[in-house]
Design a protein that fits this description.
Blueprint lengths: L7 E2 L4 H6 L2 H13 L11 E2 L32 H12 L2 H22 L2 H16 L5 H17 L3 H14 L4 H13 L3 H14 L8 H41 L3 E3 L13 E2 L5 E9 L5 E9 L4 H9 L19 E6 L8 H10 L21 E3 L6 H5 L5 E3 L3 E6 L3 H8 L4
Parallel strand pairs: 3-9, 5-10
Antiparallel strand pairs: 1-2, 4-5, 5-6, 7-8, 7-10
Helix pairs in contact: 4-5, 4-6, 5-6, 6-7, 6-8, 7-8, 8-9, 9-10, 10-12
């Protein structure tokens, strides 16, 4: 079953005539002539046996020997050839059946290679699979079936199956050198270079007599391993080089006793990172928020840590400074401006989280900013910034946790809003 019947002369005299002796054929021809069936010298129409009846007679599977069936008929058990073949099969041991499957698979494999036919290669895979399905006790034979199937799968480009069959074959027979070679070649194709090296070493160890067929595979795998290791080293060196300035900046922050947490308000452009000067000093962007004007903002982009707040207020609110656009009453002048910060605003970042935030410019996804206390020691409080303080003094205070960038709230001293702002509940 399964053997394809190609173009043939489908004689209308049928299978009976072809299976008869010469004497019987003469009698059958004479009978056909008398019945008007024509001469046996008439040309027989050439057709495909699987075409429709109007192009000639079609041989039914039951009219053929069982070995020529292209599919299993419903009443196969009534055919003597089939029953005889089944009887022979029943008399065979699983090992004999597996060996027959191996032989058939080898033939299909060789023919498939010769005519470059993938269908035959797949049929070879099926033969080896059927042989393994017999579950024979001959480990060496089963190892060969697996190794041969690995070979067929490799010719079909199924490298993952090739690798698995090759490895399984070596487990059944550690001396199956071909299985090691086929598995090693598949590992190389799949980019599993270290596994390829291991299989080459094991295969060479068990090879009798010694062989050099693994040398080229192992050399190529070793070269790939070295290339990957070199690429990783270069990437690690580049990452370390890129990370060095970030780590230096993080150390400069923490060594001053400065603590950072997630931002409280969104700043313009989200430019919150400080810069480190050549002399080791730091400059910070400082955000001034005006709650009375709906959280309008000003940003001092480079506030040196040694500068005082009074110095910057002189520039921003001095006599020559233009008034704030929304401050129609001129309440926010140099004599009345008050700066406030909110203490204990959140959980500080760890050193690793600070480095990640400085490196990527975003806050760590695993950062758990717990709610601050609402009452008692450690609860947030409004604290007035003294004009003579430097920025470094403010940032280093134990109760000030920098919310991204230093954030200060600006109100006009003595105004109604100032009183309401300080009286409002925090959080």
């Amino acid at each position: 079953p399964g053997i394809a019947l190609h173009s043939m002369k489908c004689d209308p005299r049928g299978w009976e005539w072809h299976s008869a002796t010469p004497e019987q054929r003469e009698k059958m021809d004479a009978t056909a002539k008398e019945a008007g069936g024509g001469s046996d010298s008439e040309e027989v129409e050439e057709i495909q046996c699987n075409k429709s009846p109007n192009k000639g007679p079609v041989l039914d599977n039951m009219e053929l020997p069982a070995m020529f069936w292209d599919e299993m008929p419903e009443n196969a058990e009534s055919h003597p050839d089939y029953m005889a073949m089944q009887a022979l099969r029943d008399e065979c041991t699983p090992e004999e059946l597996a060996n027959t499957a191996k032989v058939n698979g080898n033939k299909k494999l060789q023919m498939g290679l010769k005519v470059k036919n993938k269908i035959l290669l797949r049929e070879a895979v099926d033969c080896y699979t059927k042989g393994l399905a017999e579950k024979g006790s001959d480990a060496a034979l089963n190892s060969i079936l697996l190794s041969n199937r690995a070979h067929a799968e490799s010719l079909l480009g199924n490298w993952r199956k090739t690798l698995q069959d090759g490895i399984d074959a070596t487990k059944l027979d550690a001396t199956n050198t071909k299985a090691y070679f086929r598995a090693a070649r598949a590992a190389l194709k799949l980019g599993e270079f270290m596994l390829c090296q291991e299989l080459c070493v094991a295969g060479r160890k068990h090879a009798e007599p010694p062989t050099h067929e693994f040398d080229a595979l192992e050399k190529e795998a070793a070269q790939k391993v070295a290339e990957i290791a070199s690429a990783k080293e270069k990437a690690a060196a580049a990452e370390a080089a890129a990370l060095l300035p970030v780590k230096t900046l993080a150390h400069a922050i923490t060594s001053r006793g400065i603590k950072l947490t997630a931002p409280q308000v969104r700043t313009k452009g989200d430019q919150w990172r400080p810069s480190l000067e050549d002399d080791g000093s730091m400059c910070w962007p400082v955000v001034l928020a005006y709650p009375e004007a709906g959280m309008a903002q000003d940003t001092i982009e480079e506030f040196h840590e040694s500068a005082t707040f009074g110095q910057h207020l002189d520039v921003m609110f001095g006599e020559d400074a233009p008034p704030l656009e929304w401050d129609t009453e001129r309440a926010y002048n140099r004599n009345r401006v008050v700066l406030l910060y909110l203490s204990n605003t959140g959980k500080p970042l760890s050193q690793g989280q600070l480095i990640e935030a400085l490196q990527h410019g975003t806050w760590p996804s695993d950062f758990d900013d717990a709610e601050p206390k609402r009452y008692g020691p450690g609860a947030p409080q409004w604290v007035e910034v003294k004009e003579h303080w430097t920025l470094k003094e403010l940032l280093s205070k134990p109760d000030y946790i920098v919310p991204g960038a230093p954030l200060l709230w600006v109100v006009a001293r003595g105004s109604d809003y100032h009183k309401r702002f300080l009286a409002q509940a925090l959080g």
